[in-house]
Amino acid sequence: MSAAMDTESTYSGYSHYSGHSKKAHRQGRDRHKSPRSKDGSRSEKSVTIQTPPAEPLLGNDASRAEEGQDDNWGETTTAITGTSEHSISQEDIARISKDLEDSVGLDCKRYLGLTVAAVLGLLVFLTPIAFILLPQILWRDDLEPCGTVCEGLFISVAFKLLILLIGTWALFFRQPKADLPRVFVFRALLLVLIFLFVFSYWLFYGVRILDSKDTNYQGIVQYAVSLVDALLFIHYLAIVLLELRQLQPMFTVKVVRSTDGESRYYSLGHLSIQRAALVVLENYYRDFTVYNPALLTASKSRAAKHMAGLKVYNVDGPGNNASGQSRAMIAAAARRRDSSHNELYYEEADHERRVRKRRARLVVAVEEAFTHIKRLQAEEQQKAPGEMMDPREAAQAIFPSMARALQKYLRTTRQQQYHSMESILQHLSFCITNNMTPKAFLERYLNPGPTLQYDRERWFSKQWTLVSEEAVTSGLQDGVVFVLKCLDFSLVVNVKKIPFIKLSEEFIDPKSHKFVLRLQSETSV
């Protein structure tokens, strides 16, 4: 009961805390605009639209003012940033307009392909049945008796069609993973081959059987069986072209992210450029760490401060001594360049020290919170069932004790835009439900994970554009380079062919492993 009262008082304090948001935000903004602030990127500001339950743990302004704050800033200062529900950024406008332009054409192309494939598949499965039933309907009395042979052929046709139906469902009826810019060449060739094959069988059937009203019913049934056998061979050909051909690795691709230079290597088989791009993107969401543009602002602000520190005064008036000014600027830039590496070294050392300190505080706070929830579980076992706490309530009870340390750590490492308060509570309740340790809970926040670990609303890459000098339907070759672009960055893919390896064998006779022990007089043996 006392734990519940503490929880209510904590959240009532949070509501009172948020009541002074405007005043505190104005004060914090005036304070961070002082000339002594070390961050030079205050003009780069973006506004995001987010619903109140998914409000970020801290706003973007807090991360920008982190450089000029001491370690006890959170204990003595109150700063709350608000989000506007009626504002939109330029990135969102560009993304929405591009989605509206491309959605109509992509949907039409996708549904047209599915419709053609479905109609052709229905025609393929109904053709053998039609070959068998049409003579029975049109000239049943003139047919020769078939007997047991035809009944066995009927069973064969039925089971072969069932096998073909299951194989077609497993190979073709899959949920599409992506919308490719061009058609899949091998799949289009297979559809054309099946259409020509079925059309040829119908043409022969109409000329030799329907027109002449052939009375040999056993031959007609065998003709239908031959059609089903040929369709099974075409299905085997589809498996080889669509699935087995690409399994053997033939190329090695290097994928480099253009913003931070993170790279990975992958092995691919015989694929077209567009399908290789699809494989690269599937691996990107799994292997690459999530793209964080906030980590790139430090180098930009450092370069801006470096250029802002260069000032040249013309004492002779305008238009005079231009060459002297240029030489003075070059000399000043050289002097600052000689000392810039020291500034970079001390900035990185100070940042690492601050990260280690706040990480240690976060680990201690989370361990203490989990110890408290374990004690609550031991106490709640003795209470009535109506007073038991579910994982969500337990997470809300222990979250305030670790919230400040987690906020400061995420703000220091510039991860606050990827973790909303609702997502943290959900992850905390998930860890409590599955009896996970504090280290398992912190794994998501101590090290940036792949893109798939975060919500889709936090992704900076949803729609991609393939740029290639070669045709995207052509196969991979040695030296091919293509680029995958999204709104914020791009992936540069360089293709190299796996070299031919010549491996020889050398035989060693087991009898040749004989040795002699040579003793010398001065040795101790």
Automatic annotation (TrEMBL):
Belongs to the Vang family. The chain crosses the membrane at residues 111-133, 153-172, 184-204, 224-244. It is a multi-pass membrane protein. Residues 1-86 are annotated as: Disordered. One of its GO terms (cellular component) is plasma membrane. Residues 74-86 have a biased composition (Polar residues). The gene is Vangl1. Pfam families: Strabismus. It comes from the Eukaryota. This is VANG1 protein. Keywords: Cell membrane, Membrane, Transmembrane, Transmembrane helix. It is found in: Cell membrane. InterPro entries: VANGL (IPR009539). Residues 19-35 have a biased composition (Basic residues). Residues 36-45 have a biased composition (Basic and acidic residues).
